[in-house]
Design a protein that fits this description.
Layout (H helix, E strand, L loop, with lengths): L2 H20 L3 E5 L6 H12 L3 E3 H9 L3 H8 L1 H15 L5 E4 L8 H10 E8 L1 H8 L13 H16 L4 E5 L4 H13 L13 H6 L2 E3 L1
Parallel strand pairs: 1-3, 1-4, 2-3, 4-5
Antiparallel strand pairs: 5-6
Helix pairs in contact: 1-9, 2-9, 3-5, 4-5
Bound molecules: shikimate-3-phosphate.
Shikimate-3-phosphate binds next to loops.
Amino acid sequence: MALRSRKRDNKNDQAGLIRKQIGTRSIVLIGLMGAGKTAIGRRLANRLGLEFVDADNEIEIAAGKSISDIFAEHGESQFRRGEEKVIARLLKCGPQVLATGGGAYMSEATRANIGEQGVAVWLKGSLDVLMGRVKRRDHRPLLKTDDPEAVMKRLMDERYPVYAGADITVESRDVAHDIIVGEIISALAGRKQPSGARKKTPRRSAQQAGTTRK
Ligand code: S3P
């Protein structure tokens, strides 16, 4: 068999294995602003043959206004209440790849729902990488301040210990999206099965790829 078609078959096998493994659960991308949850999530869904859903987008549809307007007109706490509700609803619609806003995983209720109905994948970015990306756009209400870098630093301090509870961690960095997607797929394929049956994956390859699994 030609090498290229063998590679394609392997990719299809892996996607099928992951779909089987997750059943009706969602693959939920978490991480700070600029981690690439939407861009990576879209490609991941495409590779796995799953639907892609962006929670922020769904919140905007449900509210009939942009996230900036929700923050400005109703405040952050109302946004958080809506975010919890929308994510709880979306999690009932798996299997799918679900990208969440940076603050979503900080809600205990949302973490519990993801724990039951999803697999959490943390896209972990360094301050430099994240700042390099968020600077290019100005639609994020939390960063509309004189010192967005200080805000990001504070959020990293507050949120990284919580994000660390994710099932899988992949380092988000400035490489081709397909590389990150490949690392998520390898980590998902090598995950501990709920039944306890574990697919053997050499530890070294997970470390080399910059991923960790739980
Ligand atoms: C937020 C992140 C945003 C959006 C909102 C609040 C946060 O989503 O949900 O502006 O608290 O970090 P992204 O992480 O997709 O930018």
